[in-house]
Amino acid sequence: MSDLQPLGAFRPAGASTEAPRLGVLCGEAVLDLAAAPALRGVLPDAVLAAPVLNPLLALGPSAWSALREAVARALAEGGGAVEPALLPRAGIEPVLPFEVADYVDFFASRVHAETCGRILRPDGDGLTPNWDWMPVGYHGRAGTVVVSGTPVRRPCGQVPGPDGTPRLGPSAALDYEAELGLVVGTPSAPGEPVPVDRAHEHLFGLVVLNDWSARDIQAWESAPLGPHLGKSFATSISPWVVPFAALKDARAPAPAPQRGPLPHLREDGPGALDVDVVTTLNGQQIARARAAELSWTPAQLVAHLTSNGASLRSGDLLGTGTISGAAPEARGCLLERTWAGRDPLTLLDGSVRTWLQDGDEVVISACAAAGEDLGEVRGRVLPA
Amino acid sequence: MSDLQPLGAFRPAGASTEAPRLGVLCGEAVLDLAAAPALRGVLPDAVLAAPVLNPLLALGPSAWSALREAVARALAEGGGAVEPALLPRAGIEPVLPFEVADYVDFFASRVHAETCGRILRPDGDGLTPNWDWMPVGYHGRAGTVVVSGTPVRRPCGQVPGPDGTPRLGPSAALDYEAELGLVVGTPSAPGEPVPVDRAHEHLFGLVVLNDWSARDIQAWESAPLGPHLGKSFATSISPWVVPFAALKDARAPAPAPQRGPLPHLREDGPGALDVDVVTTLNGQQIARARAAELSWTPAQLVAHLTSNGASLRSGDLLGTGTISGAAPEARGCLLERTWAGRDPLTLLDGSVRTWLQDGDEVVISACAAAGEDLGEVRGRVLPA
Predict the structure, then answer these.
(1) Does B224 reach chain A within 8 Å, measured CB to CB?
(2) Residue B263: is its pLDDT beyond 70?
(3) Is residue A272 within 8 Å of residue A252, measured between CB atoms?
(4) B319 CB near a chain A CB, below 8 Å?
(5) A273: part of which helix (H) or strand (E)?
(6) How far apart are CA B210 and CA A308, in angstroms?
(7) CB–CB of A130 and B158 under 8 A?
(8) Among partner residues B137, B233, B311, which is closest to A143 by beta-carbon distance?
(9) Which tens digit of pLDDT belongs to each residue from A67-103?
(10) What tens digit of pLDDT does each residue of A289-320 get?
(11) Long-range contacts of the stretch A159-167 (C-beta < 8 A, 24+)
């Protein structure tokens, strides 16, 4: 785990009024970046002592690797230059690791896109005509991204009754979506698209992401401008951002496209993340899928997002969209898993789920194909 | 104009490396908030000396009115407590007045929504079934909101050819949208909807907004998740935020709804903005519409946005959506005005527009029905 050097922000447990500090997760300890004598001077004090990762993200790849090397050296040497700054993980409380600039959620899994299309538009084709040509995506609400462990209150919203008249009430179709989130480090210049082969200069790292979704609210509101309140109540992320620099071996080729892509989205070499994503509901594993099966890779998401000249900011968060495979136990949300509630899921305790119930706890975790633990995002449903 | 006390951020003209300062627009002068002896101690120094309005926005209505009163008093008294801080407007350059937190764009004009529906979905109903029941909206890109005067480069994007295969190229259907933008001041608590009758505690002020739109990119990408790259390249706002406290008389009743709204969206009294919005293209007026004709009011937008528990942050920007009236010269974008290019607009110089050409300058200005100037947003199209 210390090789990965996941970065985050934390407070001493229970000290909710203290300013957060930055740390590196080292197994069962956390290295306080601003308190470690061995790290002094490696980066500007204001970066190491910031309450969020954004200033570090903005510095770019050479600063990130300078910090990685200094941390590795310090941990290897041990002693007084590092030990006073090593805190037991159990004594700290992670907080949101970075201020989310813009949050864009994509739809990069062919299985997910096709299954949702068949469920929601049974008379149409599963995939929309654009799907093979671009990573379809939309902006989500940055201000309601919360850190793992934050309870999620069941949202209220409008849902139409049988006569077409809506009423306001608690969502009766609360769902999770198992995703990965890509964290942008280096900003890009307005008007200058980032090509696929330079995207890695802008992508800092990876979190696990739960894109909570109220399917009934979403279905009623989405025409013609897309999802909004069915998603905007909360998005949860894991607290420790795993740098892509630690994941160089966790790459695999993306599935061959059926058509396209256009030249500006072509990627040579294995660009997909060779990462498995596992979902548990109240402790029972209910899904496992491979991010390597996503059709659009992190570099392609960045290239598409900036192809119109839109710029990136440090702290932009890019969700991959639900990670699903073809088998029922590889479907990354209940919409797919229960076919919108028509095919309920029976849990080991005998209880049945079409959608999430109050009190349910969803934990999504990720591990590299080689087995390294990439963290987890956890959230429990509170009643409306 | 000094009664309005529009607030913004500026630099001395040409001093692009200096940190921005906050100011109040007073006719042809700007009062530097941090430099005026008369304002010392009215609010914390860190608020008055910030480079963006966000810390002031976060303080809430009582701080906003304390500042308004102090500015009015200082200007009335004149003399040494204010004159050293009064700068000629011609000598300063406004910058983006606040850091945009989340940007949500709504679709509050019935005429606009219905006309777009008839143009884009000629076989369907103009309005989607949800339209009468909620202010439909979606999240836009906060990081590409730019201040008036920033040139806007024509975006590239994917557009399908006659055989359905897309190619990447400059948009051939660049459009403007004349809107107002509402600026959120006081944040709201996660999980706590803001009722209609308390929305004014959270809304600080008003800007004029141009939601630049590439209609060809938008049409191809929007199924099923809504607009994205067809909008995300740029959104322009006017630099001086007019406080709602100055617009108490600029209110009118919104048009009576045809159905709904549900109780949580009901508003008593005149909630619509009695503001006219005028668009010029290369100096020629091409449209004039009334924001009072929008079906959904600022308070209703806030109540809907937070009805699922989503919280507001200081600096959230809420676009009303295109402001259109029924007459051709009241249509607030070229999509409507030229019926997607089928009915071109002939300008006074004899040239013809279906969409915007390179070099075109669009200026959208707003004035209260009583005639007060609420500012303008200006942008010129650069070639791709």
Answers:
(1) yes
(2) yes
(3) yes
(4) no
(5) strand A272-273
(6) 17
(7) yes
(8) B311
(9) 999 999 999 999 988 999 999 999 999 999 999 999 9
(10) 999 999 999 999 999 999 999 999 999 999 99
(11) A159/A216, A159/A217, A159/A220, A160/A220, A160/B129, A164/B129, A165/B259, A166/A220, A166/B130, A166/B133, A166/B134, A166/B260, A166/B262, A167/B262
Is B304 tagged catalytic?
no
Q: What tokens appear for A377 in the block? A: 């995002």
d(CA B222, CA A319): 18
Residues of B in contact with A217 (CB under 8 A): 308
Neighbours of A370 (CB within 10 A): 10
DSSP code of residue B311: P
Measured CA angle at A22 (ends A17, A25), to 5 deg: 120
Q: Is B113 exposed, middle or buried (0-12, 13-18, 19+ CB in 10 A)?
A: buried
User: Quick one: closest CA in A to B221, which residue?
Assistant: A130
Tens digits of residue pLDDT in B132-149 = 999 999 999 999 999 999
Q: Do A266 and A196 contact (CB within 8 A), yes or no?
A: yes
B241 with B8: CB under 8 angstroms?
A: yes
First to last CA, chain B: 38
Cα–Cα nearest to A320, from A150, A133, A142, A177: A177
* Predicted local confidence at residue B357, as pLDDT: 98
* pLDDT one-digit tens code per residue, A316-340: 999 999 999 999 999 999 999 999 9
How far is B354 from B34, CA to CA, in rounded Å?
A: 47
Nearest Cα of chain B lies from the Cα of A237 at a distance, in angstroms, of 16
**Coil, helix or strand at residue B250:** coil
Strand partners, B139: A139, B104
Single-letter amino acid code for the residue at B146: V
Adjacency order of strands within the sheet including A152-153: A152-153, A373-382, A361-368, A275-281, A284-290
Residue A1 confidence (pLDDT): 41
pLDDT of residue A220 exceeding 70 = yes
Note the pLDDT of residue B2. Answer: 47
> Is residue A30 within 8 Å of residue A75, measured between CB atoms?
no
The mean pLDDT value for B361-375 works out to 95
The per-residue b/e assignment along B210-248, b for 16 or more CB within 10 angstroms, e otherwise, is bbbbbbbbbbbbbbbbbbbbbbbbbbbbbbbbbbbebbe
Nearest to B308 among A226, A232, A310 (CB): A232
Q: How many CB atoms lie within 10 A of CB B342?
A: 8
B157 and A CB contact within 8 Å: yes
Q: Do B232 and A310 touch (CB under 8 A)?
A: yes
User: Which pair of tokens denotes residue B252?
Assistant: 């009118």
Rounded Cα distance, B138 and B106, in Å: 7
For the purposes of burial, counting CB atoms within 10 Å of the CB of A263, is it exposed (0-12), middle (13-18) or buried (19 or more)?
exposed
Instruction: Quote the CA–CA distance of A324 and A332 in Å, as a whole number.
Output: 5
Q: Which of A96, A134, A139, A382 is most worth mutating to test chain B (most B CB atoms within 10 A of its CB)?
A: A139
pLDDT grade for B1, boundaries at 50, 70 and 90: very low
Catalytic residue among B112, B200, B202, B304: B112
Count the neighbouring beta carbons within 10 Å of the beta carbon of residue A349: 9
Residue B34's CB is within 10 A of a number of other CB atoms, namely 16
pTM equals 0.98
Q: Which of B300, B265, B131, B301 is nearest to A168 (CA)?
A: B265
Å between B211 CA and nearest CA of chain A: 14
Phi-psi region at B341: left, alpha or beta (left = phi > 0; alpha = psi -120 to 50): left
The structure tokens 């210390």 sit at A2
Kindly state the tokens that stand for B362: 């669009």
Q: Do A233 and B153 touch (CB under 8 A)?
A: no
